[in-house]
Amino acid sequence: MAARQSLAFALEPRASATVDDFIADLAWAPAGDALAIAGGEGKVALAKVAADSLTLDVVGEHLLGTLALAWQPRGKTFASSGQDGSIGLWGPDGKLVRRWKPAPAATQALTFSPDGELLASAAGKIVSLWTPSGEPVHAFAPAAATAVGLAFDKPGTDLGVALNGEVAVHRIQKTRYETRRYKWPAACLTVNFSGNGRFLASGMADGTLHFWNRSTGKDSQMRGYDGRVELVGWSDNSKYLASSAGNDVVLWDFSGKGPEGTKPVVLSAHTERVGAFAWQPGGDHFVSGGRDWRVALWRPGKTPRPLDVHLQDSDVTAVRWSPDGKRVAVGERKGGVTVFELVAR
Amino acid sequence: MSVTPSRVPVTVLTGFLGSGKTTLLNRILSEKHGKRIAVIENEFGEVGVDSELVIGAEEELFETNNGCICCTVRGDLIRILGQLMKRRDKFDYILIETTGMADPGPVAQTFFLDDDLKNQFQLDAIVTMVDAKHFEQHVDELNEPAEQVAFADLVLLNKTDLVDADALERIERRIRGINGTAKILRTKNADAPIEKVLNVGAFDLQRALAVDEAFLEPEYPFEWGGAYQLDAGTHRLKTRGEHDHHAPGHHDEGHGHEHHDHDHAGHSHEDLAIAILPLPAATPAELGGAIEAAVRAFAEPATVVPCHGTIDGPGHHAIDISHDGADFELTLKTPGAYAVFCEHHPSGCGLHFEGQKPAAERKFASHHHEDDISSIGIRDPRPLDPTKLNQWLDYLLKTRGQDIFRMKGVLNVKGEERRQVFHGVHMMFDAQAERPWGGATRMNNLVFIGRGLDRAELEAGFESAVARQ
Predict the structure, then answer these.
(1) Is the Cβ–Cβ distance between A57 and A45 less than 8 Å?
(2) Which domains occur in chain A, in start order?
(3) Dihedrals φ, ψ of A340, to 5°?
(4) Fewest 10 Å CB contacts: which of A318, B260, B322, B343?
(5) Any bridge partners for residue A213, and if so which?
(6) Cβ contact (<8 Å) for B62 and A165?
(7) CA distances (Å), origin A100, targets A86, A94, A213, B267
(8) Shortest Cα distance from A244 to chain B (angstroms)?
(9) Hey, are the CB atoms on B63 and A186 less than 8 Å from each other?
(10) What distance in Å separates residue A145's CA from the closest CA in chain B?
């Protein structure tokens, strides 16, 4: 009987461009035809993405650094925010539609609800909701600390806010708002709802990863990280929770009875700190990028080794899959932006 | 592969309310010094200079997950530092201002939190500004001023134009009593040269440990000793006269409460205990060799000498210096070298031999501890056993980490060709191998600064870490 040859996947670079800035984050347009680019030094850029080219324009700036980017689901506008406190709304051609300051503090985080009807912002201790055109909808009571991370759950009814000492989850039901608090006495850096709605995870500055069972409220703590857990992400099917605080990516397996008491899967390919990672939408591929200038493609659960590795020109600082899960945009410390395509060989 | 970038030096600026931190920051930001300095200030808008390099921070504390309540770090700083590192034209410097009431511990400890922070940032120094005019009052009433001094690598003694020379001496001694290793720089309007505030290299331990070891030694019943070459016959020992009591440049205008400070100083100087001892020679070595004899002399009852009285030769005397311009006759039968040990530093009352200068002098840590925070130093050449050393430090920090504010040391570890250097803040510390000893004398040099430190306990712990032959 002939052995069945499985397909080998790889990443192939298709297009690249450079922004004169540190690439802090990237956001794909829903149609996959544009990329918004956040510069750590402040630039906001927009790249038109074609099959084999990136046409890039710097469209604006946030003095002292761009901190967050969000593209409206199903829409044609994206939002940026920065150290200068302002939120910018940008049209499809990169034209500034509106710019405003929600509070006299840096705006650390932005996110759209999954239906694209609400934009949430975190400026200092103030978390606010806006219409997609920037009209105010609601401002929550000031938090006890600076809000550093925001995420909606999949149905879009719950907004999680990462704070020093807790993750606050605001339930949004038309004009009624209720808040539930998941407390841990450390700086919560991320907020990550599992796609199946069962868990809420948060990476902490004290070198732990927490996940709460949302129906029981039970808090589970994962330790053993080298430092701050700044990178956390659920696989599309909610099977794996990926995390990193050093050179390795640590995957907790939530299938069966969950990860408690189990040993995690460790993805080791980077020789320096992992700077960004992302799960493939609608698939089981995973891409990581590190300060070792490498981009690695993985298929966790199939093989513990990377399927493909590329060497970039500087530290990899941002990694984002296109919404269709077919391409990956990679950003670098020195300003390089490369679009790879996932190919089967 | 990526080249590890050099670490960005960080200065932490502390100081009680009104000590002059903002004045210093404004000056640093407006001066043309060619350095790119990012300032993280404790709230928005305090610094009056328009600069794209000023970021406001709100103190957000959290405890690290190691079960120790003193290991508190600043979450907001971690976030801001991360964002600053996204600038490719890196800063030459980062300066972090803390609030007036802040404990500098959490800020400093943040830089020890994990390897990523340790690899990117170098804590250069903790600089504490002290308001000379109000320090004594604040330090008596509150804990924070003494703690801020205890953490310091550099103390900027500011507003020196608002107090007289006696008060400055007294304040410096008090600062030294708390922290025996910090450098002290006197300033008027926070006018310290920028190069002396930044790039202090406090964690260059060789330099940090070289200063004022007197304050790290065991405590003595005297603060000062001098060696003199004296002829037989009568000598005059005098205090400062009434007319030169004020320091040059001191202004009384507008400071009507100054006299109160003088009264306060006067009381503590009423009787001054001194011991006069013959020496084989007026040299630093012989002065050092007379310390034990001086301690014994101070334990004997003192002969009371009234103002303008006569000191009848060597021995322990209590001289009355309650009046300005007090003077005493000292009669010596034989010429030779003599040591004079004083209960307080003689500069406080201006005590001096008329027409004589000491051939050698030395400062000592006195038994007069106004503050429960002090520094203890251990110098010992014997090589240490690395396992026992770790056991001792682990135990020490677990049990006393909360009381030990700063800990620094250069260690002679058995089998190690290089100096082992460590420094820490409370329980968090960093240790690394530095330059080889080469031909230099191997020496352990440790300093602990903290509250209620017990020298016997620290010495016993050190002893337990000495390698067996």
Answers:
(1) yes
(2) 2-344 (2.130.10.10)
(3) -105, 155
(4) B260
(5) A199
(6) yes
(7) 5, 17, 37, 64
(8) 13
(9) yes
(10) 7
Instruction: Give the distance from residue B119's alpha carbon to the nearest chain A alpha carbon, in angstroms.
Output: 11
E-state strands within B253-381: 271-279, 303-305, 310-311, 315-320, 327-332, 336-342, 352-353, 360-363, 373-380
* B117 vs A: CB within 8 A: yes
C-alpha dist (Å) from residue B68 to B65, B108, B427, B450? 8, 16, 8, 17
Contact across the interface for B87 and A333, Cβ inside 8 Å: no
For an interface test with A, the pick among B86, B109, B117, B119 (most A C-beta atoms closer than 10 Å) comes out as B86
Name the strands in the sheet holding B93-97, side by side, starting at the edge strand that comes first in the sequence: B54-56, B37-41, B93-97, B8-15, B121-131, B154-158, B183-186
Contact A146 B87 (CB under 8 A): no
Instruction: Give chain A positions within 8 Å (CB) of B52.
Output: 63-64
CA distance A221 to A237: 22
Amino acid at B15: G
* pLDDT tens-digit readout, A290-345: 999 999 999 998 888 999 999 999 999 999 999 999 999 999 999 999 999 999 98
CB contacts < 8 A, A to B, total 99
Question: Which residues have a Cβ under 8 Å from the Cβ of B97 and sit 6 or more positions away?
Answer: B13, B21, B22, B25, B39, B40, B41, B42, B46
List, for residues B95-117, the tens digit of each pLDDT value. Answer: 999 887 778 888 888 888 888 88
Decide: residue B460, CB within 10 A, 0-12 exposed, 13-18 middle, 19+ buried: exposed
| Helices and strands (H, E) in chain B, number of each type | 14, 24
The pLDDT tens digits of the residues spanning A46-71 come to 999 999 999 999 999 998 899 999 99
Please indicate whether, in this complex, the C-beta atoms of A83 and B83 are within 8 angstroms of each other.
yes
CA distances from A48 to A27, A34, A134, A203, B223 (A): 12, 4, 24, 33, 76
The answer to whether the CB of B239 falls within 8 A of the CB of B325 is yes
Rg (CA), chain A: 19
Amino acid, res. B61: L
Asked if the Cβ–Cβ distance from B114 to A226 is below 8 Å, we say yes
**pTM above the 0.95 mark?**
no
